[in-house]
Amino acid sequence: GGGRSWDYCFEPGTAAGALACGSPGEVANDAALGHRYHMYVSKSLPDRMPDRQDYRVYNSKQMVWYMIALYAPDQLRQRVAWALAQTFVVSQVDLGAEEEIEMYTAYYDIFVRNAFGNFRDVLREVTYSPLMGTYLTYQDSRSFRDSGTFPDENYAREIMQLFTLGLWKLNQDGTVRTDGSGRALETYSNADILELAKVFTGFDEQ
């Protein structure tokens, strides 16, 4: 449980499964750890492997995640990571990349690695993730001076609405703050979105 969710990868060089590694600081697979699944990633199950079940590629990351969620010794870290992942959501279906294993496991490891760290570090790594850049469409966003169009506002809006501030100003007891007319006070304006969107320009895949 040293800060990576995918330490228990499949044994390389076998037909037993798929490799699901690739986070910063990842080391080579250790066959002594075991955790081999009786599966064969294919559309048809070979007759010579009657003890294997037939799965699609995307099942490999799901199976690794379930094993870690159930049996990893660092359960608190794994649960905090899961909670963070429910806030910084990306959709493999919407991106049309259900069988892309490496980028999803690497993205999830942001939360495992920073589960007991600083929220600012989580936000920074999520922002620099190609997965989030694609999902919330700020990858390849350009300034007005460069492109003749305004920068993409999607991530600028979501980072305030969903990831940090929320829609309404709150009192210390969690109730919504209101003005003299009883109207809820917003935490940011459309002008704030336009200005923040300028920050998220120039993000390209290397």
Alpha-beta classification: mainly alpha
Largest beta sheet: strand ordering: 1-2
Number of helices: 9
% residues in beta strands: under 5%
Radius of gyration: 21 Å
What is the mean pLDDT? 80
What is the element layout, followed by pairings?
Layout: E1 39-41, E2 53-55, H1 59-71, H2 75-85, H3 92-95, H4 101-113, H5 119-127, H6 130-135, H7 144-147, H8 154-163, H9 190-197
Parallel strand pairs: 1-2
Helix pairs in contact: 2-4, 8-9
Keywords, separated by commas or semicolons:
single chain; 9 helices; about 5% strand; disordered N terminus; DUF1800
Structure, described:
The two termini are 30 Å apart. This protein has 206 residues and is mostly helical. The N terminus is likely disordered. The chain is globular, with a radius of gyration of 21 Å. The protein has a domain of 69 residues. A two-stranded parallel sheet has the order 1-2. Helix 2 crosses helix 4 and helix 8 crosses helix 9. InterPro entries: DUF1800 (IPR014917). Pfam families: DUF1800 (PF08811).
